[in-house]
Amino acid sequence: MGESMALPLVSIQVDYNLENHLKTIYSRYPEGRRKPVVGITANHKDINTGVRDRYCQQVVAAGGVPVIIPPVDDADVIIETLERIDALLLTGGADHDPHWMGEEPSPLLGNVNEVRDLPELLITRLAFNRQVPILGICRGIQTMAIALGGHVAQDLSLSPNLKPSPVLKHSQEEERDVKTHSVTIDKCSTLYSIYACEKLQVNSFHHQVVDSMGSFFRAVAWSDDGLIEAMESTEHKALLGVQWHPEWLEEEGLQLFRWLVDEAAVYAHAKDIHGKTLTIDSHCDTPMFFPQGADFSRRDDKILVDFHKMTDGRQDVVTMVAYVPQPVDGKTWHDVAPFPCEGPKAYADLIFDKMEAIINAHPEHIAKACNFDEALRNKYMGKKSVMFGIENALAIENDLDNVRHFAERGAVYFTLCHNGDNQICDSARKSLNTWGGVSPFGEKVIHEMNRYGVTVDLSHAGERSFYDAIEISSAPVVCSHSNCKALCNHERNLTDDQLRALAQADGVCQITLYEGFVAENPSEADIIKAIDHLNHAVRLMGVEHVGLGTDFDGDGGIRGIRNSSEMLQFTRQLLKNRYSDEEIALIWGGNWIRALRRLEVKGS
């Protein structure tokens, strides 16, 4: 037996009485403050999994709670981890295996860490789907690029961005807290808003480098030799990657961790709002893709709304409409009908049948909702809700009894017309001024809708039809997917006077995401401009009269909120625009439900 070693004397005074430490915790309530949880990807070497303490220290200093994520590629483990964190920190480390980019290894490739590759690529893609804020550091920025459609050069000398001069050393031998070269920052970037400078001194420990970002990122910082040193989201999302190691740069590096923790706090707040609020999209056209075999039960690239995307975006209710095409220019119904059927009524019934078949096939995940109480009950049971609507009351044909028929089938609203006049009213587009507003038959239809509790939807209606319908209807009318003409001069958008009249009638304008209604130059349409429309409507109407009707799968979807998985981005922007939780609850569904409930009472 060897000689035992004596424990060294400790000069620091430590209180070893556990009860004394607990007294401080027990003396307050709650015992701990809610802080954002930041998941930190761990390194793996030999039989050890862990991270450098500097990552954890910086997260704590920034006000977050660090949680270490082991490199495990089990899908259930990754998804449950993402449910419990508010941000993801992708850490530095060894190279990526180039096979993930479809390449054979170059002789210049360094040491790879294949244990980390798949778990980190999976968690990055799945975090991206869920709108989780991400900060990638060194290897982490490269992980973000590979996972989301970019490319990483196996060695920086292979990057097409590298300039012949000056020659910089990107893998320093100095201590980790020594800054060895500078980077130039794009002034129109999140990174510039963090540091408020165009030149920043950084440390450097890498030889792989991002050389192509893909469509989801743009470069925002470069070294003098042309290499990409930082990238961020092209879609106003909380995604940022840097090639240097800020965890070693004390206060200066802490600023990046503060950004991550601040974004994590907003994300946590948004999740909390979605947890206690009924979140409703008042208009989507996903049934238009039924003829293409769209599968609502899996993550289907053909459609913008499905189980996966609604779950990722924490969306509770989607209003799917049976869009009824309208024959024009001498064509018959059979020329335009996506499915063979007798006419518009039969087609709307067929679409309702197909929606009910989806619901009946997945009763554990989704249910039909005809009113607020049913939608709320579904949420408490952990189910998504589908509400039914009809876009183009051409489906009523010339029979008033069909109003009752579709009400009994669960239609919560009829959009009176689409692009072109029908038997009900004149349209905002392609109108021949057939009726000079609402037709005599259309007036009877509106009365029947009031009688049976079906909401009158004036999106697509011409301006004269709009005012006629407000006057005729004894219950609030709505616009399920319309924007503000003052911000985008499109004939489908509403004038300021129309918005005021809608509010005076206790109606609701649901801001939509069709790029042509958001911006006159569609390439400029993004979530910021959509929020501008909402803010404009709020100023004219009050926050009690606005909401969201995406028009997903009917050409809706803009940069920053392209499908249902990105609904949290809408809430994030509402929070950044300083809307209160109560106001956000109204916008997300409270206002829409109020209009519907008024009609439920009327219809009963």
Structure explained in plain terms:
The strands form four sheets. The chain has a nine-stranded mixed sheet, sandwiched between helices. Strands 14, 15, 16, 17, 18, 19, 20, 21 and 22 form a nine-stranded parallel sheet that branches. The protein has a two-stranded antiparallel sheet with strand order 2-3. Helix 3 packs across helix 4, helix 4 crosses helix 5 and helix 7 crosses helix 18. The protein is elongated and about 85 Å long. The N terminus is likely disordered. The protein starts with 17 loop residues before the first helix and ends with a helix. A hairpin with a 5-residue loop joins strand 12 and strand 13. The longest helix is centred in the middle third of the chain and has 27 residues. With 604 residues, the chain is α/β, with parallel strands linked by helices. The protein contains 19 helices and 22 strands.
How would you sum up this structure in a few lines?
By secondary structure, the protein is α/β, with parallel strands linked by helices. Helix content is about 35%, strand content about 15%. A 9-stranded mixed beta sheet has the order 4-1-5-6-13-12-11-8-9, sandwiched between helices.
